[in-house]
Amino acid sequence: MSVSPIVLFTYNRLNHVRKAIDALKRNDLARESDLFIYSDSFKDKIDEKKVTEVRAYIRRVSGFNSITLIERDSNFGLAANIIDGVTSVTGDYGKAIILEDDLVVSPCFLRFMNDALEYFTNENRVWHISGWNYPICSDGLGDVFLWRAMSCWGWATWYDRWCYFEKNANKLIDEFSPNDIHRFNLDGVENFWGQVIANQNGNIDTWAIFWYATIFKHSGLCLNPVQSYVDNVGFDGSGIHCGKGNPFKSDLSAKCETNFDIEICEDGLALERIKSFYRLQKKPLLKRMLNRFLSQIAAWRNG
């Protein structure tokens, strides 16, 4: 197996970077992996000191096969930094595992990602490997499943898929039919399309929704583990796009051997459970608690 390079994007959160790198180093493949750390430059004087502290730390990092630091001279912003970094590293290596600085991974994360990249390298219908999954029931599911949407919380891809990436909101709006938008929104359950509109309006500047759209346009599939290998610790108010509180949190998998032998099509059971997860998030807290209580009573009676 050819070990994939790791690409880590950082900005001004030293404590998060420490946790992310410490977790990576607990993976047995860390010492075989080439690590590329992209450090974006500060936006203003307030962030200058924090960015300087992050750079002082990452210059001392060890525990990997090689470490390459890319310190931006000017502020790229998260989207441009990631697009440029992923394009560069996948172009040189043919594939990459990508992380942001608020992601803490399982000790089996690198094994899972590398094995998945190897297993599906010639399966052109699989475009994206996710290291994270929604906290859904695993009953009836195997180790992994395929579906239409992508997660950017610890992911991987190949250059021959990523090279189709395009960030063009106006073009998407012209190309997507109402039926496309409905399917893009998980059959109307969640408003992912609103992120495309918000990018067009200049209200946000993101990249991940455009990678999802690229995969969707090419009828690609995304691989998810049933149990997550990644925990997003950025829901503490410190991130650009994360608030406080994390409804997406689940226990990290300690499973280092994975059965990837699945049918290359969207898993309907997994899709329906993810849809149910989104529906639940839209219910008032009291109603969610009541439904959970009633489910527990039903389970007790049926048991």
Structural features, described:
- The chain has 303 residues and is an alpha/beta fold.
- It has eleven helices and ten strands.
- The protein has helices at residues 14-25, 45-58, 78-93, 109-119, 159-162, 169-175, 178-184, 193-201, 208-217, 268-281, 285-302; strands at residues 6-10, 34-39, 66-71, 95-100, 103-105, 126-130, 144-147, 155-158, 221-225, 230-232.
- The strands form two sheets. An eight-stranded mixed beta sheet has the order 3-2-1-4-8-6-9-7, with helices on both faces.
- Helix 6 packs across helix 8 (193-201).
- The radius of gyration is 19 Å and the shape is globular.
- The N and C termini lie far apart (46 Å).
- The model is unreliable at 239-245 (pLDDT under 50).
Could you name the ranges where pLDDT drops below 50 across 5 or more consecutive residues? 239-245
By DSSP, the count of extended strands is 10
- Rounded to the nearest angstrom, the distance between the terminal CA atoms is 46 Å
The order of strands across the largest sheet is 3-2-1-4-8-6-9-7
Strand content: 15-25%
Q: Estimate the helix proportion, in percent.
A: 40-55%
Overall geometric form: globular
- What oligomeric state do these chains adopt? single chain
Q: How would you characterize the largest beta sheet?
A: 8 strands, mixed
**Helical segment count:** 11
Mean pLDDT over the full residue set:
92
